[in-house]
Amino acid sequence: MTTNRKGSRFVAVAIAAAALVGAGGGAATYAALGSGGTTVRQVTVGATAEPAAATTGLSVSDIVKRTAKGVVEITVTSAGQASPFGGSSQEQQAQGSGFVFDKQGHIVTNQHVVDGAQSVKVTFSDGSTYDATVVGTDPSTDLAVIKVDAPASVLVPLRLGDSTKVQVGDGVVAIGSPFGLAQTVTTGIVSAVHREITAPNNYAIPDAIQTDAAINHGNSGGPLLDLQGRVIGVNSQIESDSGGNDGVGFAVPSQTVETIVSQLLSSGKVEHAYLGVAIESIPAAAANTLGTKAGAAVTEVRSGSPAAAAGLKASTGTKTVDGQAYPTGGDVITAVDGQAVTGADELRAAIDAKRPGQKVELTVLRNGKTTSVELTLASRPAA
Questions:
Q1: C-alpha angle with apex 262: 252 to 26, nearest 5 degrees?
Q2: CATH of domain 8-78+91-267
Q3: Catalytic residue of the set 177, 220, 254, 315
Q4: Are 186 and 215 in contact (CB under 8 A)?
Q5: How far apart are alpha carbons 215 and 194 in whole angstroms?
Q6: Which residue of 49, 86, 239, 258 has the lowest C-beta tally within 10 Å?
Q7: Rounded to whole angstroms, what are the CA distances from 157 to 47, 67, 87, 164, 241?
Q8: Hey, where are the domains in the chain?
């Protein structure tokens, strides 16, 4: 289910001859289920979720005045690779962006920005710099929380918007440190919603927001803002054949940020429910021709997973309907705990809303007959 888009890049810039922080991974067969809890609403400790942007937005300059002090530059020092000719490895530095989450000094950024960090420094809009510690990271959603011990005067938390209300064509503003150029502002629109991008550990991140606002290396972890100055996403990836901005950027949605950050602040880690299947959508328009129902067709079952233990069956062939190939011969999941599932996205959301150890009942169409399958969800493997 994971879309492995050619040319997609994580967008942290490396300096001092360092490589990009967190290279993009390949397609992950089992990325589909449990990739970020995007349907779970939890109360956050700091940032306050707000409704979608009002009809009339602020000017870009007003948005910058309202939010720029809450955007930070992050510099990460990590161990470099040892020389093949002997000798010790040299330290490497990389830069990314982030935003202030609360008055306690918590800052949200990307996991790939701080991955492997030996030390982290945060620079605020006034130029002041403070050491930071990593509170927790979640490679499955490419999100992380770090913390600085800074005076309240420099801690200006940004507010979270509601990414579920974002629409194609909405105006957006991105602020970050591309190529180390702090407080860089770019504008654009929401080009698409409900995109699927690949996390650093190769699982899928659903419901990403696509934008044409210029995003480059170093924008990673910075906020994507609506026209009320609210964070609707965390800029995370670009799709580019050149490695630079081609007008196709992706942000992890604020609904995912709200859920994941609250867990990281609570325990320093995130556990995702895991079913262990690859799936494809069977739309209603093709279901009759295929002799099945709309739902999520199982295309592969991972060995040792809850799905395997429950005996779920993967597809054995394909059939083309209106030029599109669909899996056939396997199970089609049509409901979770009685809630209808009409496609892969809905199944993913239903599993994301669960926690490891929870029991679920799947309604499955198998060989033309409807049956129920009960299983206990596991914790997602590291990769």
A1: 35
A2: 2.40.10.120
A3: 220
A4: yes
A5: 19
A6: 86
A7: 7, 8, 44, 21, 35
A8: 8-78+91-267, 273-379
As a whole number of angstroms, the distance between CA 364 and CA 184 comes to 50
- The separation between the first and the last C-alpha atoms of the chain, rounded to the nearest angstrom, is 14
211: closest CA among 178, 182, 174? 174
Tokens of 211: 């934008």
Domains 8-78+91-267 and 273-379 share a fold: no
Active site residue 142: yes
Lowest mean pLDDT among 188-202, 231-245, 304-318, 359-373: 231-245
Q: What percent of the chain has pLDDT over 70?
A: 83
Rg (CA), the chain: 21
The identity of residue 44, as a single letter, is T
Q: Which amino acid is at 157?
A: P
0.85 cut: is pTM over it?
no
Q: Could you tell me how many residues make up the chain? A: 383
Which is the catalytic residue, given 115, 138, 142, 352?
Answer: 142
Q: Which of 26, 25, 32, 24 is nearest to 1 (CA)?
A: 32
Judge contact between 122 and 132, C-beta under 8 A.
yes
Known catalytic membership, residue 220? yes
Contact at 8 Å (CB) between 130 and 149? yes
- Which residues touch 156 (CB under 8 Å, ≥6 apart)? 69, 70, 100
**Per-residue pLDDT, 87:** 60
Q: What's the farthest any 2 CA atoms get from each other in the chain? A: 66
Token pair 């044409």 is found at 212
Q: How far is CA 117 from CA 68, 123, 137, 196, in A?
A: 25, 16, 12, 27
Of 106, 112, 217, 272, the catalytic one is 112
Q: How far apart are CA 144 and CA 50, in angstroms?
A: 21
Q: What CATH class does 273-379 carry?
A: mainly beta
The yes-or-no answer on residue 119 being catalytic is no
Place of tokens 């054995």: 316
